[in-house]
Amino acid sequence: MKPKPLFAILGLALTLLLTLTNLPSGATPAVHSRPTLTVPRYSIFEQTLTWPSSGYQNPWEQVAVTMTLTSPSNQQTIVGGFYYAANTWKARFAPAEMGDWSWQAVLSDGTNGTSASGSFTVVESTWPGFVRQNPTNPYRWVFDNGTSYDPIGIGDCIASDLLGWGFDGEFRRPGDEQGWRTDIDTYMSAYNRAGVNLFRWSVNNCAFNLYQTIDTTGNVYLVPEGQAGDQLVQKLRQHGFRTYMTIFGSPPFPQSPTPQQLAAIERYVKYVVDRYGAYIDFWELMNESDVSADWYTQVATYLRSRDPYQHRISTSNPQPALSVIDINSPHWYQREDEFTSDSITWDNFASWKAHGKPVIVGEQGNSVQNWDDRSALRMRLRSWTAFFAEGVFIFWNTSFAKDYHNSGAANIYLGPEERGYLRVLQDFTRDFDSQAVTTTLTVTRPDLVRGYALTSPTTYAAYLHSYTNHSTTTRGVSVTVAPQAAGTATWLSPATGQVLATLQVAAGTQQLAIPDFITDVALKISNLPPPSPTPTSCAIPFVDIAGNVFYIAIQQLYCQGVVNGTDATHYSPAGTSTRGQFAKVVVLGFGLPLSTPAGGTQSFSDVPPSYFAYVYIETGYQQGILSGFDQATCQSSGATFPCYLPNRAITRGQLTKLVAGAAHYVLTTPGTPSFSDVPPSNVFFAYIETARLHEAVSGYPDGTFRPNNSIRRDEMAQIVYKGVVGP
Fold first, then answer.
1. Same structural domain for residues 77 and 164?
2. Residue 539 CA: distances (Å) to CA of 54, 204, 248, 565, 582
């Protein structure tokens, strides 16, 4: 069966690049008139201001940028800007109120500066807004639009170039420190498809730092790393993740800072909020550090005063007793007996919830080793129990290999098996009633089975664990349930997602027989309609595809991490695509399992393992979709046979053949050619005709197909998109 992608909710991130007129001191701000701009609700409205930076020793702190925005209800919001690169400052804002907004941005060094102003209209979007604490249950989360948000999170080490993400590794050979690595799109696509929807970015904690110095004489921030942070939060948003950002790895001046030291800390906090706040859903002050109570109070209070979105605040080591800390965020690593995974998880969350605050375990994993032959099962038991305990895990993902050791914090391996378990859990929790709360559960054999339950006006759910037997079937156990409303009861396997039984049940207390199961089983009773297909919300940053006939294809593939822009804000639809670039697009677009030759060898002389598309070219080649050139072509192109020529532009005919192969089309040909320049003798005739029949390709108004023309980037997106979703 042809693989189907996970589609994205439509969104748009708008970036407006303005080159502003320099103003002498005291001059009237320039007003730039332009057509009415529309900004989807909660997307990123960004302004870029140009001003000479060479005359400043510290452009981050010698130049100030503020942007004042006035909402349709006449409420003003003031956000700060930040130095981005030479001669460039930016300001960002995520508007929530629909209607007509006005704005004014001012850049000043105290004497000279520049300014701009304008307006935009906020329109409805499918982006549900920021994450908020559930007003009816403090332990759960909802979006601004009121829909429930049930997080499953990961954190990971992050290089400043955003390359080399550990992914689906095996046991390493002696001397191999790196293990298995992949690119950011493959990584994020795989985990988001598994239902992971929260990412912890822990600055300066196995991740790049954002500052060079935080000092009373002036803070200096890192330009490339700041831009890497921009790309990271944009990629996370693109792939449907919410971001949990740790501001400090180890905080400066941790004990009783002087007023001058506190001011330096606050300037960095302001920089982080101004730059990343529109993308973030949770703040974490620091990682596994302790500071004075005054430090927490003063810095958290300042953070809240600067944050126009009022994101919830946590810290690690956890400080749930402090009023300025909104979230209890412990770290937990253990290699517990699998028969106790549920009870330990439940007891931990019960203890952590005692402060009356939501619990997000900022790091969760194993001790001793990141993987063993029972670690996936323990993770499944913990994850399901955490959901029923009204808690959240952020797993510290270490998946570049299965043999990472640490006696205390060995992190956790999240490969295909583990991701499969998370997908089943997220499918179970999708569209879950946000009013659900814990309730007691009674089973007829408590000596064999432990259970946990949630109830709401529309939904009742239970999770049961056979805590003495994980190898044979558990039979003959019943459970007493009390749904508040009649509905359909569905029993399913947390291991596979298989439905074990369904029946109609009435409201009120009653006893149900549990179907035969091994290890664990879940129940949901609901009067709600079946959940909609899993969405992947995505904001589009490209300013050059509005009105493009292939907009939907570009949008959908971008939201799945299949295509990227040529820079942060441009897709370049008229540009050409190379054979190497297309290999990545077709492999990711069709969801092909990645594979490479044993021993790190290469199939083509000009595609070494260091080439960016190596894994995709090798995957396509092993799948029989991609192929190289004959010896004569290799020689004439200056390459050694066998060659792939990855940097050669791909033609419309070549691409159509490859998509037809990836889509597993059965080749068919008409009696009369559909295009005047593709006769039956053309090497691509059958592929083009078949793809046309499947509505994956079309020709030009003059009746030609132009098979030898280099493919445009927008055409490439359309053909791949139609190949993936078409009939």
1. no
2. 34, 27, 27, 13, 23
pTM (predicted TM-score): 0.74
Measured distance CA(535)–CA(93) in Å, rounded? 24
Q: Which helix (H) or strand (E) holds 366?
A: strand 359-369
- 74 and 162 part of one domain: no
Distance, CA of 92 to chain centre: 20
CB atoms inside a 10 Å sphere around CB 501: 15
Count the neighbouring beta carbons within 10 Å of the beta carbon of residue 597.
12
Torsions phi, psi of 565, nearest 5?
-85, 170
Among 406, 429, 452, the domain boundary falls at 429
Express each pLDDT in 82-135 by its tens digit.
Answer: 999 999 999 999 999 999 999 999 999 999 999 999 999 999 888 999 999 999
> Which CATH number characterizes residue 281's domain?
3.20.20.80
Task: Calculate the dihedral angle through the C-alpha atoms of 569, 575, 576, 580, rounding to the nearest 10 degrees.
Answer: -10
pLDDT tens string 404-429: 999 999 999 999 899 989 999 999 99
The reply to whether 91 and 173 lie within a common domain is: no
Q: Please indicate, yes or no, if residue 140 is contained in any of the structural domains.
A: no
Encode burial over 199-209: b for 16+ CB neighbours within 10 A, e otherwise: bbbbbbbebbe
Give the lowest-confidence range in 158-167, 343-352, 528-537. 528-537
87 in the same domain as 209: no
Instruction: Give yes or no for a contact between 90 and 82, defined as CB atoms under 8 angstroms apart.
Output: yes
Concatenating the DSSP letter of every residue in 433-469 gives -TT-EEE--EES-TTTEEEEEEE-SSEEEEEEEETT-
Q: What is the dihedral sign for C-alpha 590, 594, 597, 602? A: positive
Residue 690 structural domain: 574-725
DSSP 156-184: --B-TT---EE-S--PPPTT--S-SEE-H
Rounded Cα–Cα distance for residues 727 and 719 (Å): 13
50 has a pLDDT exceeding 80: yes
8 burial via Cβ count (<10 Å: 0-12, 13-18, 19+): buried
- Count the domains in the chain: 4
Measured over the CA atoms of residue 698, residue 701, residue 704 and residue 705, the dihedral's sign is negative
CA 545 to chain centre: 23
170 and 107 part of one domain: no
Instruction: Supply angle C-alpha 515, 518, 523, rounded to 5.
Output: 45
Task: Give, rounded to a whole angstrom, the gap between the first and last alpha carbons of the chain.
Answer: 12
554 against 272, higher pLDDT: 272
How do 113-123 and 38-40 pair as beta strands? parallel
> Would you state the structure tokens that stand for residue 591, as one six-digit string?
């969801």
Tokens of 660: 């037809």
Report whether 401 contacts 369 (CB < 8 A).
no
pLDDT on residue 592: 77
Q: What secondary structure letter does DSSP report for 421?
A: H
Q: Are strands 198-202 and 153-155 parallel, antiparallel or unpaired?
A: parallel
Q: Which residues pair with 102 in a beta bridge?
A: 70, 119
Q: Return the exposure string of 410-437: e unless at least 16 CB atoms fall within 10 Å of the residue's CB, then b.
A: bbbbbbeebbbbbbbbbebbbbbbbbbe
**Once rounded to an integer, what is the mean pLDDT over residues 179-184?**
91
Closest CA to 366 of 387, 337, 328: 337
Number of Cβ within a 10 Å radius of residue 266: 19
Residues 395, 154 contacting (CB under 8 angstroms): yes
Measured CA to CA, the distance from residue 654 to residue 706 in angstroms comes to: 11
Asked if 538 and 8 count as a contact pair (C-beta separation under 8 A), the reply is: yes
CA distance 412 to 395: 7
